[in-house]
Amino acid sequence: MTILIEQPELSTMADEEMRNELVLDGGFPLPKPLSEDGFKAPQINSYGRSFRNYHGESARQKSVEEFYKLQHTNQTYEFAKKMRAEYGKLNKAEMGIWECCELLEGIVDASDPDLEESQIQHAFQSAEAARKDYPNEDWLHLTALIHDLGKVLLLPNFGELPQWAVVGDSFPLGCAFDEANTHHKYFKNNPDNNNPAYNTKNGIYTEGCGLDNVIMSWGHDEYMYLVAKGNSNNLPPVALFIIRYHSFHPLFQTGAYKHLYREEDVENLKWLDIFHKYDLYSKSNVLIDVEKVKPYYLSLIEKYFPSKLKW
């Protein structure tokens, strides 16, 4: 069945082609928020500065810049392939989604200039913000809750990887590093930057190959995507797209790497553009009462996932 729907207004995609009427196959609609009293994105973060400001002089911003220096130097095509092969075995643990959520309690993201709260708070802040705007899209609420579960890679049982191999913006490997990437200047020290097989616009890829054929930098996004894909689940495919590319900010904020898109990617980007509002701008020092909302999210976990997953 083919459904014609109107595309919602997009604040971050400049291409006119993305503002035309969208045709989706499979009967999966893209609704507008039901309430005008939904989540309102704040103008400033918890430090009183603009969101995703990477160029200030605060101690936090300087530490974030040092993080990106390490990430951009060490995230190579071969490294990502190796990590994907190792963690794709899903042999690190066996546990439920809620158990994994609880592991986020002690994790702080060193790449984030906007928040120093634990990642479990970020998960619930994102989910509750999405729930406020789209109360009937329970799959979106759950996707927001679990999108960062891959950050357990920082913990000893999952290899205790360094922050540069877990968090931060993601980007394609095997082709040139687009200047839209945060702190692009530090890619100069990346071995791939001087490899003629990888440092051209297309690199090892062909135009329009599709993002699912592109090797991304290794991190929590890719790991959680592998976990969700490798276990049975009832989430729509676009949920896995959101999980996999939610840190790929040049993709949906500047249109970078669009030469790699195919039609399916353009369609999924509509939901990713919606999601990033809740991921980026729900960060706050006003904490969610986890015990109060826990029953609702437990019901979603039971609906969409088995009781135990391989990690």
Automatic annotation (TrEMBL):
Return the Gene3D superfamilies for the record.
Hypothetical protein af1432
**GO molecular function, one example?**
inositol oxygenase activity
Q: Which domain of life is it from?
A: Eukaryota
UniProtKB keywords:
Ascorbate biosynthesis, Cytoplasm, Iron, Metal-binding, Oxidoreductase
Which Gene Ontology CC terms are recorded?
cytoplasm
Keyword Metal-binding (UniProt): yes
Cofactor remark from the record: Binds 2 iron ions per subunit.
Q: What EC number(s) are associated with this protein in UniProt?
A: 1.13.99.1
One Pfam family here: MIOX
As for subcellular location, the record says: Cytoplasm
Locate the residues binding Fe cation 2: 220
Q: So, what pathway does this thing act in?
A: Polyol metabolism; myo-inositol degradation into D-glucuronate; D-glucuronate from myo-inositol: step 1/1
Report the sequence similarity comment from the record.
Answer: Belongs to the myo-inositol oxygenase family.
The protein, known as: Inositol oxygenase
Specify the species: Arachis hypogaea
The organism's lineage is: Eukaryota, Viridiplantae, Streptophyta, Embryophyta, Tracheophyta
